[in-house]
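Let's study today's protein:

:::
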Amino acid sequence: MRARGMWPRHAALLVVCAIMLVPFYWVVKTSLTGENIYAYPPRLLPQAPHLFNYVDVWYLIPFPRYLLNSVIVSLLAVGGNIVLNALAAYALTRAFPGRRWVVLLLLSCMLIPFQATIIPAYLITARLGLLNSWLGLALPMLSTIVCIFVFKAAFEAVPRSLIDAARMDGLGDLRILARVLLPLCKPAIATNVILSFIWSWNNFMWPLIVTRDPLMQTLPLGLARFLSYVEDTTGALYAFVVMVLVPGLAVFLMAQKEFMRGLTAGATKG
């Protein structure tokens, strides 16, 4: 009886899922055919699909270089988030004077949009000599406050007895973090990986500001400039969109279960 009562909810979820997937399917179909998106009546199935549009994107523009830049910047952002956020979260789980004010300060910083900090971030990056470099592109994404609190919630869920036992065995704070807490907090790690990867992969404004050399641009910038490379851009542009979306989608699908567990823990144990 309970299963029968769930079918309206399942049907509604299927409708919502279809609404969300139809635009993505249409992008993929157009990238394989190059059909006019305004053609009427629209065709549901692709006619004579081919990969010529993907080949054009790969060879007509410096796509491999854009891809390399995006991969390196995203990996730097992911590594920075795991290391720096874990260290900051572990510090916030320890008792020290003014910890509550530090937490409130971090939470208040989440209210400040990134656009309001672009000028000081640019000046700092320029003073460090990191303009037009991979590290400079990744610098603002090396740590995010949301992911710090995801780690903090996960660390606080670990039984205190395990930490005390590790300390009695002679482990210091860094070794406790690396050998005890992080292996038990894989959902939090997955959440940090997915969020930091997607945010850095899709970042447009910061690379636009700090890059001068076209060969240092990332995929979002390459996508924005793509219309100036070729005349008939319908199929090739959609192929470019698919090639930009696939890596982020793949990362999410590989870690979606751990991501949902980590995000839920972070939402309920702030």
The first helix runs from residue 2 to 5. Residues 51-268 form a domain with the MetI-like fold fold (CATH 1.10.3720.10). The chain has 15 helices and no strands.
